[in-house]
Structures are given as structure tokens and as C-alpha cells.
């Protein structure tokens, strides 16, 4: 298993894995599989080459099986913030520590940007595994957005969390 920053050469695998994520866990993402499936490959490539995004992948046996991104805020008054997005690990590769390794990659990237003071993310209420992973990585809940995502006739709340980027990475290995 290894983690690396994705680039345009990974666009097809990235697209396939994100479409799997949107399909299998529609409540976890604000985008739908229907919206994203029609996007051209060039759109996915641009996501991986944008100066405002850093997307990391977890690979097993040469196959992309997990992803997470960090989006930097372009607006002048908010450039001190970044947002974790698109965290997903294929079901057959869960419980192997890939989520933690992906978060370590994102936090490591954040530490390369000294002006960055806040990292934020949202997690679907009820996704206890992800919530506890984020807590372990130093994220703290600061709010709950009711009815944040609608899937069919069902609504799902989102928990808002934040962290400062300079949490010592050694602490990620210790239970919180």
C-alpha cells in the first residue's frame, strides 16, 4: 500500500472511484453520480491539476482504492482556510488504516502552507467511523447543518469540524 498525490495521469481511475463513492454512499457527498458521470475526463483532470486542490490516492496492488482532497480557498480574506473533501475508501479495503494514511497525507500537505490556519470538513451525521477518524486526527465538531443533503426523499445532516494544520503527526498514532 502506498499514498501519493494524484495528477492528470490518474484522472480515469479517480473518476471511476469517485463515481463508485457517489453511487454507494450518496448521503456522504453533495455531488450526485448523475451530475458527475456526464463530466468529461478533462474536468476530472483539471481537478487533479488545479493549484487550489491537492488530491491524494491510496493504492493497493497498483489499483487506486482510496482518495481524499484538500481544497485551498482562493478568496483573499479566506486564504487562511482549506477544506478536506472527497474522502472515500473502497469497501473491500476498509479497516486497513488507509483512511488514516490519507488524512496524514492531507495534514502533511497542509503543513507545507504556513499561511494556513484552519482546516475544515463535513461528515454525514451517523457515519461514526469517519467521525472518529477525524477526531483522532485532531478535528473538533463546531456545528451541525440540518438537512444538508437530500437523497430522494431523505435528508441527511452534516457535522462541521475544524482543526489547525500544525497538530504533531506523531499524535495521530495515539488513541484520543
TrEMBL record:
One of its GO terms (molecular function) is acyltransferase activity, transferring groups other than amino-acyl groups. Transmembrane segments: none annotated. Residues 1-168 form the N-acetyltransferase domain. It comes from the Bacteria. This is GNAT family acetyltransferase. It comes from Pseudomonas fluorescens. The lineage of its organism: Bacteria, Pseudomonadati, Pseudomonadota, Gammaproteobacteria, Pseudomonadales.
Amino acid at each position: 500500500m502506498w499514498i501519493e498525490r494524484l495528477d492528470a495521469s490518474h484522472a480515469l481511475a479517480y473518476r471511476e472511484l469517485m463515481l463508485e463513492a457517489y453511487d454507494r454512499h450518496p448521503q456522504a457527498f453533495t455531488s450526485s453520480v448523475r451530475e458527475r458521470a456526464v463530466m468529461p475526463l478533462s474536468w476530472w483532470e483539471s481537478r487533479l491539476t488545479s493549484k487550489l486542490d491537492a488530491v491524494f490516492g491510496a493504492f493497493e496492488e497498483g489499483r487506486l482504492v482510496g482518495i481524499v482532497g484538500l481544497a485551498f480557498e482562493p478568496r483573499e480574506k479566506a486564504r487562511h482556510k482549506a477544506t478536506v473533501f472527497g474522502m472515500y475508501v473502497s469497501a473491500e479495503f476498509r479497516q486497513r488504516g488507509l483512511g488514516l494514511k490519507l488524512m496524514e497525507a492531507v495534514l502533511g500537505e497542509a503543513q507545507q502552507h504556513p499561511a494556513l490556519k484552519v482546516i475544515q470538513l463535513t461528515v454525514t451525521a451517523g457515519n461514526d467511523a469517519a467521525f472518529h477518524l477525524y477526531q483522532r486526527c485532531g478535528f473538533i465538531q463546531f456545528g451541525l447543518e440540518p438537512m444538508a443533503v437530500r437523497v430522494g426523499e431523505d435528508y441527511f445532516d452534516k457535522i462541521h469540524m475544524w482543526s489547525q494544520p500544525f497538530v504533531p503527526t506523531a499524535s495521530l498514532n495515539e488513541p484520543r
